[in-house]
Design brief:
The structure is a homodimer. Chain A is an all-alpha fold. The first copy, chain A, has a domain at 88-203: Orthogonal Bundle (Tetracycline Repressor, domain 2), CATH 1.10.357. Helices cover 71% and strands 0% of the residues of chain A. The first copy, chain A, contains 10 helices and no strands. Chain A has helices at 8-31, 38-45, 49-55, 59-78, 95-110, 113-128, 130-157, 167-170, 172-184, 191-203. Chain A is elongated. The mean pLDDT of chain A is 87.
């Protein structure tokens, strides 16, 4: 059976890159962003400091790529059994079912200890350091939210969402409560919870006219 | 004209207390929670360290009271022109109008630089320090959210919200997006924005049956 061949040097690079990401994510969860150093990442990853500096200019740049890679891995895991990685919200024609599917997968991700400490460290630093915060929002958060914008726009085309609704605001009704509960540890993160968020956001909490 | 008389010592205590709160809030915004010390608060407030230790056992305890006081001041400011401080969401009989009123006042508070740095420092520390975070949620955040729970319950009694809706989840549809935008600096905080959140939450984003 034919196998895709990869030159040895590329394979070595790939292995180093993954080791650096793992080290950066583990360390930021352990010591926080302020105390994270390129030296410590290199030592933990078992590579030379120069290897890191060849690819990235700062610890913030390493970490951002590590998180982007983590998000990609999560997308791959959620697509297990599918032929291609899902880089958009599924469109089954039923907006409510599709949003619940994605939000349940997101809950599972938030409940995974592997994500908790590094994400929390990055979020805390982003609160205090406007430059890092801006980069985090621009490169990591906003592209993910844009997938909801696209899906809501398609639902508007299909007549499932009112044409006057602003999709960028609408998505906050389900995405922000989950993020906030996770950040503040202010409530349980369950499938039932995100199902309700989606239901309330789509149909409102006021009585529907008979 | 008769004046309410206050013993000199009480007046002095009140003045010290307010100076300590102001110093704690200013300092946490400047240096962050980790570097905040009782000594620095005392020096900035112009009181002895003993004065602070007589009333509080830790910097976290000072700061929590300072934030509670700040929230009280904000409530007093919002009640200007009213006879009594509003400790609940107004009930005019029109839930949508009442929620918009409160959310607009909250936007104005978030946009006030006086609140921004200290709240941000506390939120960042609460992310990393679960004990402080829990205290923050329990004593500061949750009592404020409970006011929305009470108002939604009254709206349920009045037939303005469906009886099967969970008020503690419903309030997150308008409160969490605002908190999240402020934390992440991911969008403009305007009256128009919170009006839309309230409208979408009450009536949903799906078309209403004709």
């Amino acid at each position: 059976m034919a196998q895709k061949t990869t030159p040895d040097s590329t394979r070595r690079s790939e292995r180093s890159r993954r080791a650096i990401y793992d080290a950066a994510l583990a360390l930021v969860g352990e010591v926080g962003y302020a105390k994270l150093t390129i030296e410590a990442i290199a030592a933990r990853a078992g590579v030379g400091k120069q290897t890191i500096y060849r690819w990235w200019s700062s610890k913030g740049a390493v970490l951002l790529d590590a998180f982007l890679d983590l998000a990609e891995q999560a997308a791959e895991a959620a697509s297990a059994g599918h032929d291609t990685v899902q880089t958009e919200i599924p469109d089954s024609g039923d907006l409510e079912a599709d949003l619940k599917f994605v939000m349940r997968a997101t809950v599972d991700e938030f409940n995974d200890p592997k994500y908790d400490a590094p994400y929390r460290a990055l979020a805390a630093e982003g609160l205090l350091n406007p430059e890092l915060g801006r980069e985090f929002v621009e490169k990591l958060l906003e592209p993910q939210l844009q997938l909801f914008v696209d899906r809501v726009r398609r639902a508007q085309d299909a007549g499932q969402v009112r044409p006057d609704v602003d999709p960028r605001i609408a998505l906050e009704l389900w995405a922000s409560p989950l993020a906030q509960r996770w950040l503040m540890r202010s409530g349980a993160l369950t499938h039932e919870y995100v199902d309700k968020l989606v239901e309330y956001a789509l149909h409102g909490i006021a009585p529907r006219p008979a």
